[in-house]
Recover the amino acids of this structure.
């Protein structure tokens, strides 16, 4: 998303008159890794058909990060769902008639 950056000047009037729109540059990520891991990553990039190690790393990290975030979102309950779940654990209520019948049949058959 572009943002407006005003050029610094001494005259106050020119500050309002000279907005400059700049697009943020891509973010940079650096990591120091053991050389044997670098060799494995380079080999994997070639085998996966990527044009560069950077391409491979970006795609692999995007997929992994997206999966982790999605898994986390799926495992979280909404506040109302969480409250209902805790209430059901604390006060489960009486078992339904079908469950009582199933327990009775089980007791008779498993003696």
């Amino acid at each position: 998303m572009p943002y407006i950056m005003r050029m610094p000047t001494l005259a106050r009037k020119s500050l309002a008159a000279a907005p400059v729109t700049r697009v943020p540059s891509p973010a940079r990520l650096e990591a120091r890794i053991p050389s044997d891991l670098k060799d494995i990553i380079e080999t994997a990039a070639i085998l996966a058909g990527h044009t560069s190690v950077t391409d491979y790393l970006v795609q692999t990290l995007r997929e992994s990060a997206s999966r982790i975030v999605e898994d986390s979102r799926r495992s979280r309950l909404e506040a109302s769902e969480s409250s209902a779940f805790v209430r059901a654990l604390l006060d489960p209520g009486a078992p339904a008639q079908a469950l009582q019948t199933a327990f009775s049949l089980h007791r008779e058959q498993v003696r």
Remarks:
- The chain has five helices and two strands.
